[in-house]
Amino acid sequence: MTKFKAIKGNIASPKGFTADATHAEMKFQKLDLGLILSEVPAAVAGVFTTNKVAAAPIELDKAVVAGGVAQAIIVNSAIANAVTGDEGVSNAKTTQRLVAEKFDLNPSHVAVCSTGVIGKQLPMDKIALGISKLSAENGHTNGFAEAILTTDLVTKEVTYEVEIAGKTVTVAGVCKGSGMIHPNMATMLGFITTDAKIAQPLLQNMLSEIIETTFNQITVDGDTSTNDTVLVMANGQAGNPEILADTEDYQAFKTVLAIVCQELAKKIAADGEGATKLIEVNVTGAPDDLSARMIAKQIVGSSLVKTAIFGADPNWGRVISAIGQVAAFDVPDIELEIQGDLVLLHSTPVDFDQAELSEKLKEKVIVIDAELNNGTASGTAWGCDLTYQYVEINALYHS
User: Fold this and answer.
1) What is the topology classification, in CATH, of domain 278-396?
2) Is 273 annotated as belonging to a binding site?
3) What is d(CA 31, CA 42) in angstroms, rounded to the nearest whole number?
4) Cβ neighbours, 10 Å, residue 85
5) Any binding-site annotation on 176?
6) From CA 2, how far away is CA 256, in angstroms rounded?
């Protein structure tokens, strides 16, 4: 039985990692440049946006992941370095080089990420000054989670410990994301560190599989960002024997990595721009897992469902409509529950107390359960309500 527990920590909690953050003056006052650093080269895995207009750092980071080794991740907020042409690519490479020179690293072992406004060039004088301020010894480890934020209202962190072969392995994650959240590989910026010893190909396969049921199952507004990136670094400093495929150690580590990814994904959904409620949709009884996941995501991504949840309106017809839009099979026998209240049985309306259910829909977490009675597969997706404030935030977001 896997022994794991959540602990209080940050992205630098695993052995052999440190982090730092500084104000490089890209934002008015807040931290806007963050660093994750491993004492030794680490195995690195990553997934990236499928948006065809990808930000300048994306190809650079794909090359880092293809090399299989990373020792540092540098992240700036405020400016996305997307749709910036050859100059943007050059600026990403310069950022990589400056970090490598500062900490005596191989440049190909430095990943570079940016988030913020599209179409603006990075102020390289500020980037260079900010990098010069970062420290490998006395870093502001808790500041990294703040430095990567854009329209987010809260930082998003989670840390777990798991016992593997008698050794304590730590897995820590941090992410940012609030708007432009509708993944098809990964969405937002997400970073995970672990002191586990695991080969890069195995780590990459594990991450790619976990992404499908975690980060890829959240949606806020239907928009996939130009900068979406998830990176995992494993530096092997916990002292555990190397994790091998199809072993108990593999399953234990995968379980905790999946939990970290899922919790981060849910934190993003709950902090969607203008959101007041987290929505969880569970679909069961589908012919296959992919269909179940896509139907769940269609429900949670429906603007009509999202606005009904915002208005505490138990309009189950909007949920049924969303199911019908994407189901590639007949669904004549649906059972539907909202906040635990049965509203549909055998695709036939059931009497329920609308006033009571409306009160339940004012809670912070809304759960919709749909049983399709057409198989044994299941899937879950997470999102948030659609509010007046979402429109206000994005109408005023400067480009």
Assistant:
1) Ubiquitin-like (UB roll) (3.10.20)
2) yes
3) 26
4) 9
5) yes
6) 9
Reference 16, options 233, 244, 249, 261; nearest CA is 233
Domains 4-269 and 278-396 share a fold: no
CA dist., res. 116 & res. 122, Å (int): 11
| Pairing mode of beta strands 110-114, 156-164 | unpaired
Which residues in 259-312 belong to E strands, given as ranges?
278-286
Residue 3 is assigned to a ligand binding site: no
Q: What's the rounded Cα separation, in Å, for the pair 265 and 173? A: 11
Residues facing 111 on adjacent strands? 73
Is 356 a known ligand-binding residue? Answer: no
What are 75's strand-pairing partners? 34, 113
Strands 278-286, 365-371: parallel, antiparallel or unpaired by DSSP? parallel
Those residues whose C-beta lies under 8 Å from the C-beta of residue 288, and which sit 6 or more positions away, are 375, 377
187 classed as catalytic: yes
Annotated binding residue 219 = no
* Range 4-269: architecture per CATH: 4-Layer Sandwich (3.60)
- 355: which residues sit within 8 A by CB, 6+ positions away? none
From first to last of the 399 residues of the chain, give the pLDDT tens digit: 668 999 999 999 999 999 999 999 998 889 999 999 999 999 999 999 877 778 899 999 999 999 999 999 999 999 999 999 999 999 999 999 999 999 999 999 999 999 988 899 999 999 999 999 999 988 889 999 999 998 787 899 999 999 999 999 999 999 997 644 444 433 479 999 999 999 999 999 999 999 999 988 887 644 456 778 999 999 999 999 999 999 999 999 999 999 999 999 889 887 766 778 999 999 999 999 999 999 999 999 898 999 999 999 999 999 999 999 888 788 899 999 999 999 999 999 999 999 999 999 999 999 999 999 999 999 999 988 888 877 776 666 554
Residue ranges covered by each domain of the chain: 4-269, 278-396
Q: Which of 18, 84, 141, 187 is catalytic?
A: 187
Please check if 399 is assigned to a binding site: yes
171 SS3 class? strand
Distance CA 308, CA 357 (A): 12
Tokens of 207: 């991450």
Nearest-angstrom CA–CA distance, 102 and 110: 11
Torsion, Cα 305 310 312 315, to 10 degrees, reads -10
